[in-house]
Design brief:
six-stranded mixed sheet; binds magnesium ion; alpha/beta; binds guanosine-5'-diphosphate; Rossmann fold; Gyrase A, domain 2; Four Helix Bundle (Hemerythrin (Met), subunit A)
């Protein structure tokens, strides 16, 4: 029995000029609905006996609007009978010709028959509610769709296939085990039977605390793998920041000019180098200014520099005044790569460090290598066998769990009773369970699913 009886629908593919558009319907009455519009013939409505169709098979037919006797499109439908479908409900996929007009007609037809437009992530929410996937697996669906690199794809797949959830479950079971023993011991308290050695428990809790802490730390790498390395290009006006930005993007994305203060806001573009995803940010040249628009650009640039994982500090070899940008001085040294630009017109002879020309491309490959190496070092701790946290929510659950474990540890150390220790361990267990959804409340669920795309 489904938790929601509405039939929902949404395009599962991008709508536009394309070979095929797939519209997906899910709901316990979705077969009844499709029966009203699927015809064997194009000239007149000749119903298809949907009940006799085998699940997971395709059926050719014509979509018909019987209220106007209008043929909408020649289609192929695929049926998935509950519970063997993505959502666990009866699902129909309509493959029509591509094109926004056809989709509009199908949309109107389905709406007129009482189906509702699916909200973002509603199919996945149903899959979760109907027990097809746990919450971490459901979140992985969104990550898999967004993944742009092999590493991001790999982490999403591990989460989707349940490898990640299984590890969380085994941590959870360990905690359940301690609680059960502590609570059982309470039942035997009059007999004075000790089922849990306090020193032993303390050791185990300490071990778990450090395991959880290590896991939360992997989020720094996980976040970068999932969202990309933020790479800011910084320096005084006119040193060639926008030229370097354009060089990497291989297009004239930013305006390049000899007039200082041309880039007044930051620009951000995705870029893949060496299989790693970057978000490259061209910042406004930072200088004191009375122009309020430029001032705002400078303020935003400073914020972006603060959020960056790698900062390219650009200097102009032909302009000694461009050296020593004060805005890089607050950036931790390990994040900064110093780049001397305009080597093609420099007359100052040999110069130590990375000397490049954004104009001619000279030595830009060395800069690229340096950037890739730095980015790799940011995720160096991630072997393919490692468990990595890529989701802020998961990290927060683990942090919360850790706090309860620290409380439990304190209770053990001061000789607290079994109820008190077990209370803290149970709370720690609930926080871990939230990752896979066993204890997630409605607000948490809504927050997760509204971030999904429509149709997933
Ligand atoms: N010769 C030479 N000129 C450059 C190079 N990089 C940038 N420029 C020129 O320097 C000026 C400022 O460049 P731009 O990229 O707008 O600098 P930004 O203000 O730091 O973004 C423009 O006239 C560019 O053509 C370079 O490597 N060699
Ligand atoms: Mg610029």
């Amino acid at each position: 029995m489904s938790f929601d009886n509405r039939i929902i629908f949404a395009p599962a593919t991008l709508v536009g000029e394309s070979g095929i558009t797939v519209v997906r319907l899910s709901g316990n009455d979705s077969f009844q609905l499709i029966k009203k519009v699927l015809s064997k013939k194009p000239q007149e409505f000749a119903p298809v006996h949907i009940e006799s169709l085998v699940s997971h098979t395709a059926q050719h037919g014509y979509l018909f609007d019987i209220s106007t006797n209008e043929l909408i499109d020649e289609v192929v439908i695929t049926l998935f009978r509950a519970p063997n479908s993505y959502t666990g409900e009866d699902v129909v996929e309509i493959s029509s010709h591509g094109g926004s007009y056809i989709y509009r007609k199908i949309n109107n037809l389905l709406s007129s028959l009482g189906a509702d437009h699916a909200e973002p992530g509603e199919f996945s929410k149903r899959a979760y509610m109907n027990g097809k996937m746990d919450l971490a697996q459901t979140e992985a669906v969104a990550d898999l769709i967004k993944a742009k690199t092999e590493q991001a794809n790999l982490l999403a797949k591990k989460q989707l296939t349940g490898e990640f959830s299984n590890k969380i479950k085994s941590l959870r079971e360990e905690l359940i085990n301690y609680c059960s023993l502590l609570e059982l011991e309470l039942d035997f308290s009059e007999e004075g039977i000790d089922l849990v050695e306090r020193d032993e428990l303390l050791k185990k809790i300490n071990k778990l605390i450090s395991r959880f802490t290590d896991l939360t730390r992997t989020y720094e790498s996980g976040k970068i793998i999932k969202n990309g390395v933020n790479l800011a290009i910084v320096g005084k006006p006119n040193v060639g920041k926008s030229s370097i930005f354009n060089y990497f993007l291989n297009e004239s994305r930013a305006i390049v000019s000899e007039i200082p203060g041309t880039t007044r806001d930051f620009l951000q573009e995705p870029l893949i180098l060496g299989g790693i995803q970057f978000n490259v940010i061209d910042t406004a040249g930072i200088r004191k200014t009375i122009d309020t628009v430029e001032e705002e650009g400078v303020r935003r640039s400073k914020l972006k520099i603060g959020e960056s994982d790698i900062v390219l500090e650009i200097e102009d070899l032909t302009d000694p005044g461009s050296i020593g940008d004060e805005f890089v001085k607050d950036v931790p040294k390990e994040k900064v790569i110093k780049v001397h630009n305009k080597v093609d017109i420099s007359t100052s002879g040999k110069h130590a460090g990375l000397c490049v020309s954004a104009k001619t491309g000279e030595s830009m490959e060395f800069l690229e290598l340096e950037i890739i190496n730095r980015a790799k070092s940011l995720t160096h701790s991630t072997k393919s066998s490692d468990m990595i946290i890529t989701n802020e929510r998961h990290r927060d659950c683990l942090l919360k769990s850790c706090e309860y474990l620290v409380n439990a540890k304190e209770q053990i150390q001061k000789g607290g009773g079994n109820e008190l220790i077990s209370f803290e361990i149970r709370a720690a267990m609930d926080s871990v369970s939230e990752i896979i959804g066993k204890t997630a409340n409605v607000d948490i669920l809504n927050n997760i699913f509204t971030k999904f795309c429509i149709g997933k």
